[in-house]
Amino acid sequence: MKAPPAYQALREQLRDEIDAGRYRDGARLPTESELVARHNLSRQTVRRAFQDLVAEGVVYRVPGRGTYAHGEGRRYLRQLGSIEDLMSLSDDTTMQVLTGLRRRVDLDAASRLRLDDDIVYSVVFRRLHDGVPFVMTTVHLAPAVAHAVVSSPELQDGAVGTQTVIGVLEPQLTDPIAEAAQSITVAPADSAVADAVSCEPGHCMLRVDRLYSDTSGRPVELSVSHFLPEQYTYRVTLRRSG
Question: Is 29:59 a contact under the CB 8 Å cutoff?
């Protein structure tokens, strides 16, 4: 049997050690340099293992301090809306494709999609409401998924329409999308985001990451969106369970 890639072996070892209690909630893990020396690995291999664990919520990183075990007590998870709600963005907004779907190397996106190499397919677009741009989104697809829609006219350079990527993608999937894990943070606008939504570089944006998985639990799409706060309101309704 073929041995797994080195980053996967390290990732599984660190996960097992955390599960076994060697690194309890909030305990700092060895540094990248320490793991490089201990296991005779490249820094990129160690970094990829850490990125996978961060994406899975097993560890969290504090810039300038290190990587820490992420126990259940530190997580606050909420279910927001539904897949149908996300697909309904096409009802009253327009999607303009800035960079059509194409093959690229992206270490972070590939890690979050749990791919064995660094190749993904990405499309960049912005959305407008009543002619006003309010968000730029980059969607990354696993190659096996992207091949089914890579020629779709809705995802080519300059395409304009009321579609969503998930709406174009889902009819081509063997297993339908069942879940979207979402995180919301704040991030400054880089030059591409600033150009897309007509703001100054460095402007404070609402960043929303969504990782879509199908009914088999396989990640199929990662979207990273930067919303212009002046043009966008995010509303959530919470109800009692039971």
Answer: yes
Q: φ and ψ at 109, to 5 degrees?
A: -65, -40
What DSSP letter does each residue of 84-125 carry, written as one string? HHHHGGGGT-EEEEEEEEEEEE-HHHHHHTT-SSSEEEEEEE
Measured on CA atoms in the order 178, 103, 184, 77, is the torsion positive or negative?
A: positive
Crossing angle (nearest 10°) for helices 6-19 and 43-56: 50
Strands 94-105 and 119-129: antiparallel
- Tell me how far apart the alpha carbons of residues 17 and 119 are, in angstroms, rounded to a whole number: 29
Nearest CA-CA partner of 23 in 8, 37, 13: 13
Q: How far, in Å, CA of 42 to CA of 161, rounded?
A: 45
Q: Indicate yes or no: pTM above 0.85.
A: no
Of 137, 140, 136, 61, the C-alpha closest to 106 is: 140
Q: Would you say the C-alpha torsion 159, 180, 184, 113 has a positive or negative sign?
A: negative
24: amino acid identity, one letter: R
Q: Write the pLDDT tens digit of every residue in 34-64.
A: 999 999 999 889 998 988 887 777 887 776 7
- The DSSP element (H or E) to which 16 belongs, if any, is helix 6-19
